[in-house]
Design brief:
The protein has about 400 residues and is mostly beta strands. It has two domains: about 270 residues; about 120 residues, no CATH class. The protein has two helices and 34 strands. The strands form four sheets. The chain has a 24-stranded parallel sheet that branches. It is elongated, with a radius of gyration of 29 Å.
Length: about 400
């Protein structure tokens, strides 16, 4: 039966959404469950990382209005591991010993110590080397493998207070995919010590698959991937990075917030509603799959094609090369059409349809009806607006540059 799991944060890593011991009953939310991060101990600064559920879809994922942690880590975090050349190392004991490391792409490389040579690479020649030169040779050998996306540092290693030489291995790609294992064979712990695996890799965003997401937190950076049927943004910080969505959202409903909701390039936000959120902004990137936009307040900017837009109030900006099939605007709306993409059907019931900032070589408006109280301003100085079927005027005002000729009927 579906259950409700509450965040408690009592696990080994109290920031990991995928750690079962952080949830009520020490059980991860699974397919059909509701996961809730309620106001309480998680209101402190910091961040969450990880993904839920492991498979399937949550019924709901809800965040309390006072949660100040971010979701995801800006820029992500690369996994690291350490090895240490011990002060009492005996080169002869290392001969033929191996260690194997794997990068975040799954490329694995075995290194073999050779006490009879001086090679650098998969075979690490250590014959006659002092401890500091031995440590430096290990660093150089790891860094010489171009196919391995791992960097060894420092170069050269420096001695610590115990006389040992620590070496840090850092994945070149951020994220949990870099939390890979390290295997050894024949190694003597009295010569070199190794971590058992890379740890600490954190993705720049959390992956949440849910039928419904209720986002009310005030973290400065909220970044989500995954598939959600409905995302309700009820509140949020004033940050320009308040919310990033990079997956597939059927219904994005911005109901509050003073921050900016970003829909990433090449993602999906089928229906976008900005409802009475005066201080909110929605920025839709390029190549986003988007069908409808409805806004009654706030500001929406899109660089992607939209089928139907109804702008009741606020500001709507269409940029880049985005096209729009049907655009209807009302008395409280300002539409800035700066794109070079065709607008097939425009109805200006009120407000201002502004082409004055357009720098496109040409922009086509196929069908246009202007009603009383509406304004069309095409004074770009470029004469670049093409009104294919003219402007059907039922009142309203058309502002043009001197010398322009087109049909107003």
């Amino acid at each position: 039966m579906p259950d409700t799991r509450y965040w408690e944060g009592g696990g080994t890593d109290p920031t990991d959404l995928a750690d079962a011991t952080n949830w009520s009953g020490n059980t991860l939310p699974v397919n059909g469950d509701t996961a809730i991060i309620a106001d309480g101990s998680t209101t402190e600064q910091g961040y969450f990382h990880g993904s839920i559920p492991v498979s399937g879809t949550l019924a709901a994922f809800r965040i309390g209005s006072q949660i100040k942690r971010s979701f995801g880590k800006s820029g992500g975090v690369a996994a690291t591991a350490s090895m240490k050349v011990i002060s009492t190392v005996a080169n002869a004991d290392l001969d033929t010993d191996t260690f194997t490391i794997e990068d975040s792409d799954g490329t694995s490389q075995q290194f073999t110590f050779d006490n009879s040579g001086s090679a650098t690479g998969a075979t690490i020649g250590i014959n006659g080397l002092s401890i500091d030169d031995l440590a430096a040779k290990i660093v150089d050998s790891i860094n010489s493998i171009a196919a391995l996306d791992i960097v060894a540092s420092p170069d050269p290693p420096t001695v610590d207070t115990a006389g040992d030489y620590p070496i840090t291995l850092t994945q070149g790609t951020v994220g949990i995919s870099g939390n890979t294992a390290i295997s050894t064979a024949g190694s003597h712990a009295s010569d070199i010590t190794y971590d058992s695996d890379f740890t600490g890799g954190i993705n720049p965003k959390c992956t949440i698959n849910a039928t419904e997401m209720e986002l009310s937190g005030k973290g400065a950076y909220q970044s989500f991937d995954g598939t959600q049927t409905t995302v309700n943004v009820n509140d949020g910080s004033e940050s320009s990075d308040m919310l990033h969505l990079a997956g597939t959202v059927t219904n994005l409903r911005v109901l509050g917030s003073r921050g900016t909701v970003n829909v990433a390039d090449s993602s999906t936000a089928t229906n976008v509603d900005l409802i009475e959120a005066r201080f909110a902004k929605v920025i839709i990137g390029s190549s986003v799959t988007n069908t409808t936009i409805t806004a009654s307040a706030g500001k929406v900017t899109t660089a992607s094609n939209v089928t139907t837009a109804e702008i009741i109030g606020g500001i709507f900006v269409v940029s880049g090369a985005a096209t729009c099939t049907t655009l209807t605007q009302h008395s409280g709306a300002l539409v800035q059409y700066t794109t070079s993409g065709t607008l097939t059907t425009l109805a200006v019931n009120g407000g201002t349809f502004d082409l004055s900032q357009s720098t496109a070589a040409s922009v086509t408006i196929t069908n246009c009806t202007l009603y009383e109280g509406g304004v069309i301003d095409e004074r770009s100085g470029l004469g670049n607006a093409v009104w294919t079927n003219g402007i059907v005027s039922k009142g309203g005002l058309v502002l043009t540059d001197i010398g322009r000729t087109f049909s107003i009927v």
